[in-house]
Each structure stands twice: as structure tokens, then as C-alpha cells.
């Protein structure tokens, strides 16, 4: 080989190395989530992104704030396009995670789960919602997501208003309704409620679960049998009754849970708000004029809740190794403890390291529910499109355009059509 050939090869190698360095420097890691900036999850995950950037200073991190509704409505279209991110927060359940998993749009994470030691962090009881079969039904099949927190629906209550009106924290349904009546007698609408978004179904399903047993929950969530409507009929009748008694305002049909009903509670206008732990950051930051707390809605066993939404890696992700590294940082003991001390329901925190009052309470209440096997999941999970149907049908209950019997008939038709096709 002559000198000119060697020079040409050397120059070519230099160009390739330069191109490789430029490519690494221009690498963009795209991350999406829909947790609001003031939530413990978002704050902890932002810390994890900072750690990732420190380890890889040459990459550009492009974070985009999405909304739950955006991904709920257009998740399949987004994930099946070249616009998909490297990693994103996505809702669990048959109708959401299960649907996109059955379409082959997500990267299986089983190998990473073991090789990266995530199986030592998340026990089997925390992973049923990470796996979906070819029909999109949870509980078996490839692992397509990793939860980084837990969540549950409880009753947020204004401690000062309870004390001023001599109302005690209820431990039975009768006591709960007595509390509603006591506030109404004082001219106070007791329940903040919004039917425009997911808050519509939180109260509905919470009431339904007071009438549910193990068989009903397993059949309902797993599409094991045609829909037994009795729990939903009970819930629908309660909502109509509470609207008629003034416990729920008819104006609820114009309110979202986030940015609407939650404001009625945080401003001190309504003493109770049935919603999820995703409100903790907002309330901890913005409620200054009264003391607030939470209690589990009176139920024999089941409460609305689950492990949290999951981080998923789209099939088309360009930087999967960075996605896995980010998930590992989120699952780290340091990040989990930080999330708990920000008031979140961390899934793998060290209880002894939690000093935050809200975070400690959330861990205690979550354990109270989960220790008895009482996580009832969410009502929109079993059937694609059920999220929108539940909102529309519950709005009809509140505004009087839908009777409880008509309500359950709509739910049963949509559910049974899907169940029969399994």
C-alpha cells in the first residue's frame, strides 16, 4: 500500500470519527409525560433528567409536557408515527396500554427488567399491570411498561371545616352521608365534583366498589363475563340522589376535576373532594388558609387505585438505551425517596427516609388499601372508548338527561360487545 493510500484511509477514518462525534453531540433524547409540573412525580423525574444530562453532557434532552387527554385520545396514532418520543408516561389498563401493546407499538422490557435489576425493586404484586397479552388484556404476556409510583383515590377533606361544623371523619357509608347532610344543612355544598374529565368516574367507581367483591372486580377488569351492572346501578342512583339533595352541584357538568372542582376544594368552598393522589402537589403548594388531609372512602375492601401510570419505550424509539437508563434513575432509591418527600406515593421508597407529612400519609393510606388486596383499578380500563363513555354518561346523570337504568344499559352494551369478542 502506497503512502497516498494510507493517507486516504487515515483521512477517511478521521472523517468517520468526526461524524460519529458530531452525531453523539447532536443526539436528542425525547421525553414526554403528563404529570403537572407541581406534582411530586414531575419534580422527581425532572431531577432524574438532570442526572441523565450530567452523565451524558453531549446529548440534548427535549422534554415535552403533554396532557392525559392528548395521549388518551391519540396514543395509537402518535406511537405509530415518526413523532413518537424515546420514552413516555402512558396510562395502564386494557383500553390504553393494552390497546397499543396489542398493536405492537411498544418495546418489550422483560430482558431489561431482569438485567438492570428492576425485578429486585418491583415485586410481583406491583407488576400485573405491566404485562398484556395479544388481545391487550392485562396480567400476562410481554412486559411493556415500568411503574414509578402508586396512586389511589381518597377523600380530600378540609379539617378546619369539619371541626367548625362538628363533623367527624366517616368510617361507614351511613356516616359519610350524614356528613354530607350536616354540611348541606349549613348551606354548604359538601362535594366538589367535575364531570368534564376523569373526575367523573372517580366518584362513580368509588361508589360502585362499595358493592363489589373479588369476583366482580376480577370479572370486570379482566372481561371474564358479561357486565354485572348492580354495583354501577347503585353508584348511579347515589349520584342522582346526591344531586337532588344538593350534595353535588348541577354546575358540576361544566367543571373539570383539574382546574375546576379541585379549585372549589383548595379555595375552601367545598369541604370534600373525591379524587386521586395526583392532587397532592397542587394542594400542598396552594392551600395556605386551612388544614387539609385525606381519608379512605368507607368501603369493605376495594378502593379506586393501582400502581401508577408507566414509562414505556415506543417500538420506534431512536435512543432506547438512554430510555432504559432514565427509567433506572427514576427507580433508584434516591429518586424514590425524593418523590416521597415531595409528597408523592413512591413505589419503592424507604419508609424510614420519609419525613414529609403528605408523603408519609400517602404511604400509610396506600399500604392500608394494598395490604388487604384492595386496589380496584379504574373503571375505564376494560374497554377502549369507555373513558369517554363514562364521562358522557355520568354527565347525563348529573344534568338529569340520563336515568340510572339508562346509564347502566349504555355501559353494559359497550362492555358486553367487547367481552363477547374475546
TrEMBL record:
<comment type="subunit">
    <text>The complex is composed of two ATP-binding proteins (UgpC), two transmembrane proteins (UgpA and UgpE) and a solute-binding protein (UgpB).</text>
</comment>
<dbReference type="Pfam" id="PF01547">
    <property type="entry name" value="SBP_bac_1"/>
</dbReference>
<comment type="similarity">
    <text>Belongs to the bacterial solute-binding protein 1 family.</text>
</comment>
<protein>
    <recommendedName>
        <fullName>sn-glycerol-3-phosphate-binding periplasmic protein UgpB</fullName>
    </recommendedName>
</protein>
<comment type="function">
    <text>Part of the ABC transporter complex UgpBAEC involved in sn-glycerol-3-phosphate (G3P) import. Binds G3P.</text>
</comment>
<keyword id="KW-0574">Periplasm</keyword>
<keyword id="KW-0813">Transport</keyword>
<keyword id="KW-0732">Signal</keyword>
<dbReference type="InterPro" id="IPR050490">
    <property type="entry name" value="Bact_solute-bd_prot1"/>
</dbReference>
<dbReference type="InterPro" id="IPR006059">
    <property type="entry name" value="SBP"/>
</dbReference>
<feature type="signal peptide">
    <location>
        <begin position="1"/>
        <end position="24"/>
    </location>
</feature>
Amino acid at each position: 500500500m502506497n503512502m497516498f493510500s494510507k493517507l486516504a484511509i487515515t483521512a477517511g477514518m478521521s472523517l468517520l470519527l468526526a461524524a460519529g462525534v458530531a452525531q453523539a453531540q447532536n443526539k436528542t433524547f425525547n421525553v414526554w409525560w403528563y404529570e403537572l409540573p407541581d406534582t411530586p412525580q414531575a419534580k422527581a423525574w425532572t431531577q432524574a433528567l438532570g442526572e441523565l444530562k450530567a452523565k451524558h453532557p453531549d446529548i440534548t434532552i427535549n422534554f415535552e409536557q403533554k396532557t392525559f387527554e392528548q395521549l388518551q385520545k391519540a396514543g395509537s396514532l402518535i406511537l405509530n408515527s415518526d413523532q413518537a418520543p424515546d420514552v413516555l408516561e402512558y396510562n395502564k389498563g386494557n383500553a390504553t396500554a393494552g390497546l397499543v401493546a396489542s398493536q405492537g407499538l411498544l418495546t418489550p422490557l422483560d430482558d431489561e427488567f431482569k438485567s438492570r435489576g428492576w425485578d429486585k425493586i418491583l415485586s410481583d404484586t406491583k407488576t400485573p399491570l405491566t404485562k398484556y397479552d395479544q388481545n391487550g388484556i392485562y396480567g400476562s404476556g410481554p412486559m411493556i411498561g415500568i411503574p414509578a409510583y402508586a396512586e389511589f383515590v381518597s377523600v380530600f377533606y378540609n379539617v378546619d371545616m369539619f371541626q367548625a361544623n362538628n363533623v367527624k371523619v366517616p368510617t361507614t357509608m351511613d356516616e359519610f352521608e350524614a356528613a354530607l347532610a350536616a354540611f348541606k344543612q349549613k348551606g354548604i355544598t359538601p362535594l366538589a365534583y367535575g364531570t368534564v374529565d376523569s373526575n367523573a368516574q372517580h366518584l362513580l367507581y368509588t361508589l360502585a366498589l362499595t358493592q363489589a367483591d373479588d369476583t366482580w372486580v376480577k370479572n370486570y377488569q379482566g372481561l371474564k363475563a358479561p357486565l354485572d351492572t348492580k354495583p354501577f346501578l347503585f353508584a348511579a342512583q347515589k349520584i342522582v340522589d346526591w344531586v337532588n339533595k344538593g350534595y353535588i352541584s348541577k354546575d358540576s357538568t361544566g367543571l373539570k376535576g383539574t382546574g375546576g372542582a379541585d379549585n372549589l376544594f383548595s379555595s375552601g368552598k367545598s369541604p370534600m373532594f373525591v379524587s386521586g393522589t395526583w392532587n397532592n402537589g397542587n394542594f400542598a403548594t396552594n392551600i395556605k388558609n386551612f388544614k387539609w388531609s385525606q381519608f379512605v372512602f368507607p368501603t369493605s375492601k376495594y378502593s379506586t387505585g393501582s400502581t401508577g401510570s408507566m414509562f414505556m419505550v415506543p417500538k420506534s424509539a431512536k435512543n432506547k438505551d438512554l430510555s432504559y437508563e432514565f427509567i433506572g434513575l427514576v427507580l433508584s432509591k434516591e429518586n424514590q425517596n425524593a418523590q416521597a418527600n415531595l409528597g408523592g406515593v413512591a413505589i419503592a421508597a424507604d419508609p424510614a427516609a420519609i419525613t414529609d407529612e403528605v408523603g408519609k400519609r400517602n404511604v400509610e393510606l396506600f399500604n392500608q388499601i394494598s395490604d388487604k388486596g384492595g386496589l380496584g383499578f379504574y373503571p375505564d380500563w376494560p374497554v377502549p372508548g369507555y373513558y369517554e363513555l363514562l364521562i358522557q354518561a355520568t354527565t347525563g346523570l348529573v344534568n338529569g338527561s340520563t336515568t340510572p337504568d339508562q346509564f347502566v344499559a349504555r355501559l353494559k352494551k359497550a362492555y358486553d360487545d367487547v367481552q363477547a369478542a374475546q
